[in-house]
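User: Quick sanity check before I run a bigger batch. Here is a single chain. Can you write out its predicted 3D structure?
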Amino acid sequence: MAGEAGATQTGGRPATGGTIKGRYGLSVGNPGTPLPDGWTWTALSSVARLETGHTPSRKHPEWWGGEIPWIGIRDATSNHGRIIYGTREYTNQLGIENSSARILPANTVCLSRTASVGYVVVMGVPMATSQDFLNWVCSARLNHHFLKYVLLAEKDAILQYASGTTHQTIYFPEAKAFHIALPPVREQNIIANLLNSLDDKIERNRRMAATLQEIAQALFKSWFVDFDPVHAKVDRRILSLPAATLALFPDRFGENGLPEGWRESAFGDVFDIRNGNTPSTEELRYWGGEHQWATPKDLSPLVSPVLLNTDRTLSDQGVAVVNSGLLPPGSVLLSTRAPIGYIAFATRPVAINQGMAGIVGKEISTAHAWLWCIANNDVFLSVAGGSTFPEISKGTLRRLPMVVPSDDVSRSFSASVDPIVERLIALAEENDNLALLRDSLLPRLISGELRIKDIEAQGEAA
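Assistant: Done. Predicted structure follows.
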């Protein structure tokens, strides 16, 4: 049966006889360290079937583009710790039949083992994977969510299990020797359910944030790209807008092709565009203070357009040598190189490096700038220059044209979109708190430091 442990399907060398201890609940070999009553160090291969994957040949395009999701490294890095139901690429039955790839069942737990080591996803539906993964099909003796959380908690140790000169890889002799600190199934279920309740809330918040952003983008496109309200008045069509809002729009277009009374202006004339830079890293007095300092790297992992914290911080002296100074909360941050187009709202005063533009509002809400940047991402790429890597200069960004509506329409748009931004920030802050709670519980739960009675009490509090 698919859910039984059974023999591994990887072939190759047998399990290593050495031992590499993990921090909490996963080890190469049996470490023999003490466990709570009822827990045992168990060979992972005895409670889950180890599988690998393969990549159908790229020389055969007919083996790609079907209905079978195929997990690659980018799917794992962008969905770390999550259940996934779709992938960037799909294969088909021909691809499976002409490669060593296998369709694995839903609930298979996948760990990236090479290139980017330590990323974990769970299959929400039957899928195949590349050869860059270790995949475990769990038996009835192992809750697949419990295994996922063990792997998440042990990410630092998992990196120690990798070796290689060109790039780090977890080889199969080590994977076959994995041992897990295993509690009884009932306790596994309680641990998994508690942690899942937090992750489920985080996922619901993410979906809500995505929906809110789609609503804001659709409204921006309707009003300022397609000019739907104006066209509706010109053509005497009914539009689902409140009468008071519709009355703010003109009923004709001007000679400039824009709604009458509207104008085209340079983006930098409507918003204050600020440059950033990097204080000398040799001057320790510039670094480690209480002020945030953002780079494109801080924006790259965001799943919502909200920046709560930055990887590095500056002192007062550091801020004093940054061109941007401290941008006020509510400013829009845009990465202008390496790569172009990451966009986020700052929730605290923040300085920026040279790969960023800081957009500060004047008369128009920065929510308008946020949505304008999203709508013009392709334009940014088309006007970018640079020989080493694409970059849009701040001067070019300032000169790009934007449609400026009448003051009444601008205020009405802000009244509709600003509350959406506030809700996006609130959801991001809630998710940050939920993730902190989950991450604080995780090592204590999978190591047995917290037992059932404590877990249940923590569950009620959560």
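The longest strand covers residues 64-71.

User: Great, the batch can go ahead then.
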